[in-house]
Amino acid sequence: MAVMAALIEDYALIGDLYTNALISREGAMDWLCLPRLDSDATFAALLGTEANGHWTVRPVEEITGIERAYRKDTLVLETTFTTASGSARVVDFMPIRENRRPVIIRIVEGLSGDVPMRSVMAPRFGFGNIKPFFDKSAVGLIAQAGPDIIQHVVPTDTEARVADGSAICEFSVRPGDRRALQIMWYRPWEPAPMPRDPYVTARVTTEWWQTWARTATYQGPYRDAVVRSLITLKALSYGPTGAIAAAATTSLPETIGGHRNWDYRFTWLRDASMTLAALILEGYRDEAYQFRDWVVRAVAGDPEDMQIMYTITGKRWIPEVTLDWLDGYEGSKPVRVGNGAAGQFQLDVYGELSDAAYLGRRYGMASQGALRGAAWRLQQAVAGFVEEQWQKPDEGIWEVRGDPQHFTYSKVMAWVAVDRVVRCIDEFGLDGDRDHWSALAEEIKADILANAVDPERNCFTQYYGSKAMDASLLMIPLVGFLPPDDPRIINTIHEVAKDLGNDGLVLRYRTDETHDGLAGEEGAFLICSFWLVQCLALIGERDEAQRKFDRLLSLANDVGLLSEEYDDKAGRMLGNMPQAFSHIGLINAAHALAGGGESPLS
């Protein structure tokens, strides 16, 4: 019987700043895309069964206990297995990539007794669809199909056998024993890579991550969670460009068995300002510069051509297709690759882009980065485009596939797009027609206040004329649209918490009130839940903010990772994993609690 994927929260992440792998608590590497995180998956059991590719290293005997943790401030994962025969540790990591070739190393260490271990390396190229053929190499085995080759190196005193498209090797470890396995990916027309020294490489990789983590400025009570979130963001970044993917996976469902399954291995422009705020607050200026310059290059010269998302290299073409041979995570179909929402009109992204440019200048990035001059020209061009488009309905921040609406959050972010130009002129002495932009900002604000406020509850609503609430309304005070003591702000925060919240867990919106073009329900969005923490801190309700933040931290898995959503009824994670947005929310909320509640975006 084919083995299904583990619970979403049972996965840990390793990566090399080009790609990532997800490894379950029982040692199954069920997700790996090569050579980049947006490439085809080589191990795709996460979205089907082990027949779709995996690499499992675990004891042969029944496991009676599992403990795992990252080495302090690293992405080096250690999993300790206990059996009736003893205990053994598996150390999993990917060296920071050299020569653009991915390497994955798994070291098995004996701790007590005599523990029989088994490694099953079963690649299935093309998202779990293509079984390779195996051959011997000078250092082990190679598995190849089409343009992909994996070289598999096993311990020198161990023989690997091939069965049904899998390389299998077995060995035992006693206290003090260390056995290393590794895989290396390359193209058939390239020379075969030489194996790495696994033990030296483990030490170097550990030191690299610990050195990187020391930059983090946050010194409060949640430092471990903040640093883990920063490491996760770094792991989701693409080293050559600085772009940060929204998640490491595709098609992990928002409802088990449902079809709200999306590919998040891309970079959304709306993440830009919040990501930059998190990086800048923590002292990661180089990453902030690199990401800011990626944004400018991706958008290019004409805001009219701007997309809401791009590939991690900055490409625009992201066609959405379904992979029918994959059964989906726990039967959640379809499995999607690409994202059709890339072509939507979403007015809010122009505000997020302008805010990112403003934040960069506010925190000292004005004279840094390769494209600093282009950033101001682009920011003004974006404001000009917003001037022509802000009165049109759009699909909104949540990329609804129903009818366009005059979404309140979109209008507020149109105001942000113009307001940040005014601020840049005022605060940094940049050239521009201040009177014109200031008048436009006031016009947009007046329109919002006239049409987006429910007069009965004196709070903002999801879109013009609506009674429905939307978690994106929590961003209104965070971007400085109105002061935090304004009754409309306070009422909106409380109404969102009451209508969409459940002990700190916040839905994006109610699916029975919002025509999003899809059937089914979804879990609570963790980024929205962290927004609520920030808002409560902002309006002075710090005890409640603290309580909700502690609840959210308790939802992280045993190695500190968060997915996109959480199903409170079932008590499990949902959505793509790990989710950059969730970890950005954690960082910004921790800073809000540590300081006076001020938002870094306002």
Structure description:
It is a single chain. With 602 residues, the protein is α+β, with helices and mostly antiparallel strands. The chain folds into two domains: 8-202, Beta-galactosidase, Chain A, domain 5 (Distorted Sandwich), CATH 2.70.98; 213-594, Glycosyltransferase, CATH 1.50.10.10. The protein is built from 14 helices and 27 strands. The strands form seven sheets. Strands 1, 2, 3, 4, 5, 10, 14 and 15 form an eight-stranded antiparallel sheet that branches. Strands 6-7-8-9-16-13-12-11 form an eight-stranded antiparallel sheet, covered by helices on one side. Strands 25-26-27 form a three-stranded antiparallel sheet. Strand 12 (141-145) and strand 13 form a beta hairpin. The radius of gyration is 24 Å and the shape is elongated. The model has no long low-confidence stretch (mean pLDDT 92).
What is the tally of helical segments?
A: 14
First CA to last CA: what distance?
A: 55 Å
The rounded Rg comes to: 24 Å
Q: What is the CATH class name of the largest domain?
A: Mainly Alpha
Multimerization status: single chain
Tell me the number of strands. 27
CATH architecture of the largest domain: Alpha/alpha barrel
Unreliable stretches (pLDDT < 50, length at least 5) are none
Q: What is the residue-averaged pLDDT?
A: 92
Fill in the CATH topology of the largest domain.
Glycosyltransferase
Strand content: 15-25%
Q: Which class do the helix and strand fractions yield?
A: alpha+beta
- Tell me roughly what share of residues is in helical segments: 25-40%
The shape, in one word, is elongated
Largest sheet features: 8 strands, antiparallel
Number of domains: 2
